[in-house]
Amino acid sequence: MKRRDLLAAGAGLTMLALVRPASATPAEMAAAINSFTGGAKPQTGKVKFDIAQLIDNGNAVPVTISVDSPMSAADHVSAIGIFTERNPQTDVVVFTLGPRAGKAEVSTRIRLATSQRLMAVARMSDGSCWSQGVEVIVALAACVEGEAP
Question: In the record, which residues are listed under signal peptide (predicted)?
């Protein structure tokens, strides 16, 4: 094989690697949630994950997470995290709250690489953790490596 042929083949493989979507796995999402909760198993309930089930464009998806909490000094949400199963990074965002937040609700926009399962997890001041999972379908994916601006 000539040097020129080898370089051309290498460039083709590099381009192929750059445009493939990078994604995590369900096991990586579980590990990220375990790290966030400090090993505590999240219970289902208290968390409301508001996101569209069918998403036209994964580039800027609005989400709102609210948690049933009195937000008092003795009983409040200390953190809320959003985790994805198929994005390049499983932990999308972590919000830190305290009793002075007044309301246990956060809103943001996230990018989604593809159709997948998402989890919202709330860590409470007493150390307990609560969660809600949702399945979403994404028509036009985001988070593709090598994507043109």
Answer: 1-24
